[in-house]
Design goal:
14 helices, Rossmann fold, alpha/beta, homodimer, 373 residues
């Protein structure tokens, strides 16, 4: 693993392309957009901890973006936490964006609960449980993809590079299903916000989904939006459309963990040139996760660099954050990619340590005052 | 009327401030956002020609932004026209933005019919007929204002100056009502898309609205959002919030005709410092309209410069566009301000003539192919 980057990040794949990406983006302005969505798949007990209970997972994406934009949540009384009380990675995202003075926007793939912030509607809807094999109407998936492409085109005119994050509980399970449907061997390779990755449950859900959709592994390779319609979620077409639209003009950081495998595999089918202008931005915690394999997923798809922010919460005084060092949460809301973008824009002046300090301060403020400054 | 500007525009008010504004914005990048909304007020026969029939006026704002973003309409089969078939000023907006390669976004104050494009939801709703005296719930107005302020803040980080346009049929009537409610003498001063400005009808509607709302002229001066809730429309709080949020960081062109009087009068009450960073951007046709008085409205509110694009369609081969020279349409969808922004960004290289040529070409393409390139 080579690393001579001028920022606190590891080049975890395609090190030369990663360095070239960093060099091109260094000192440049970015815009951040968070794609949010929900799916009934997150109600399956044990599938996700992105919320204190399965029912609360539908509030997590809107609450995440409320926190990023406002420093407090409005649709729930406090920031999203796991059942153990470990806070959302939106803390990292907000700190990184605030330090960078970067614009932040919200794009909705499809939601049950709407955020009480400005948000960009892309014509989508909340997704069904993928076990039905009918997650989203096919025309909705196409419409969201096309509108997101248009949005990506417009946003590319307003920044030097674009950072796209996501928040969707159970998103790794739907990503697994979509990747298998388009022909990526993703079994046992997606990550989890839990240290004990429930691979068996995810695989059972995905097998049932594929069976009910009449999909064999790889049978959607020529029609990847059909995979999303059958066994995907509303974030995927929005995210892929944004990358497809923006990457014609600017560099794009696809900010996330193993779900980015689904994004890249769709791009490969729909807009292969886009892969030339994309890097995955993630966290050290994803790379170090022995229960998943982001690099192994990406290598199957294309030569896309992976940058991982060397975030470290081991020295933080906040117990909730120290859990990140024990394999909880790891990534989400574009946390890793936002941190990398902040480092890039500031030419490395904003360090991983500076971000961790800011997160710690915000977390303390949340606990004492109920909001971050 | 002084005019030594390096662009094809007239400084119609506060010439020194206008020149300073132009100097500061020259060569800079802008973003364009169109605020759209609808109100049942537009269904009153004779009040507006922003649509081929009163019923079609609810389609005009979504169709306008579809045309700006896509070069074609989706919610109706062709671009919005007056009952005489005169086309929407969105033609000017699209031409100006396209020539500038500027980002364009859509913000929704409240609509009956949604555009088939990405659009930013601000938590608003379609407005009621103001004659009821209850146009919009008070909490909705405040929510839209606050969310728009947040959006303005984010957009200000992504551009050097912001151009805000609007599309709402019957918008001059609701603007008249709001201006009177906050204490501006606006009677007989608002413009119309018709050469025969129906001042009598507008005044009757507004008097009925104020009577049913229990509002005396000026009685809402200390609570301007109450005026919007009683006798306004969903575009006003969104537009005002955007200006309030963005003008803390960047210059803002409030792009429109006499409706901008309502915007400025609310800013004066809610965020008076914002008036220092705002110019109205409009068209020559508004200035030359003897049936309305934009300058007279603005002078009552504050020292805000007015820039009017010297657009001229008298030589165009397209008959529909030549009607603009006979007092039809005049302004809308931020046409004048977009044209000025295009001139500013290009340091005058994009001339009024160049924009008129582009509009003519797009209009020909619309007629022959059904879309603009």
């Amino acid at each position: 693993m080579s690393n001579q980057l001028p920022i606190d990040a590891i080049a975890a794949n395609e090190p030369e392309k990663a360095r070239a990406f960093v060099e091109e983006a260094l000192g440049k302005d970015f815009a951040y957009v968070c794609v949010i969505g929900t799916t009934d798949t997150s109600l399956i007990p044990g599938i996700t901890v992105a919320g204190a209970s399965p029912e609360l997972t539908t509030y997590t994406p809107p609450a995440d973006v409320e926190y990023v934009l406002l420093g407090r949540c409005r649709c729930i009384p406090a920031v999203p936490v796991t059942p153990e009380g470990i806070p959302t990675p939106a803390l990292i995202t907000r700190a990184s964006i605030k330090l960078s003075n970067a614009p932040a926007l919200v794009a909705v793939g499809g939601l049950k609960v709407k955020p009480k912030t400005p948000y960009i509607n892309l014509g989508g809807e909340h997704g069904g449980d993928i076990r039905t094999g009918r997650a989203l109407p096919r025309e909705t998936v196409s419409e969201v993809y096309e509108r997101a492409k248009l949005l990506g085109r417009e946003l590319s005119k307003a920044c030097d590079f674009l950072v796209i994050g996501e928040s969707i509980p159970a998103g790794t399970t739907t990503a697994l299903a979509v990747m298998v449907a388009v022909g990526v061997d993703a079994w046992g390779k997606v990550s989890s916000a839990m240290p004990n990755n429930p691979h068996q449950l995810k695989s059972e859900v995905v097998r049932e989904a594929l069976r009910n959709a009449g999909i064999e592994p790889g049978s959607c390779a020529d029609d990847p939006l059909a995979a999303v319609s059958s066994v995907g979620d509303p974030v995927i077409p929005a995210f892929v459309g944004l990358v497809a639209g923006a990457s014609k003009e600017v560099l794009v950081i696809a900010a996330g963990g193993t779900q980015m495998g689904a994004v890249l595999s769709l791009l490969k089918g729909l807009e292969p040139d886009a892969l030339e202008n994309v890097a995955i931005g993630t966290t050290r915690w994803i790379l170090e996760d022995s229960s998943s394999d982001l690099v192994g997923l990406v290598k199957q798809i294309g030569r896309v660099p992976i940058l991982a922010a060397k975030l470290d919460f081991s020295q933080t005084s906040a117990e909730g954050l120290r859990y990140y060092e024990r394999g909880f949460v790891k990534e989400g809301v574009g946390a890793g990619g936002s941190a990398i973008a902040a480092m890039l824009k500031s030419k490395g002046e904003i360090s991983a340590k500076r971000i961790a300090y800011e997160v710690e301060r915000d977390y303390a403020s949340l606990i004492t005052k109920g909001y971050a400054e």
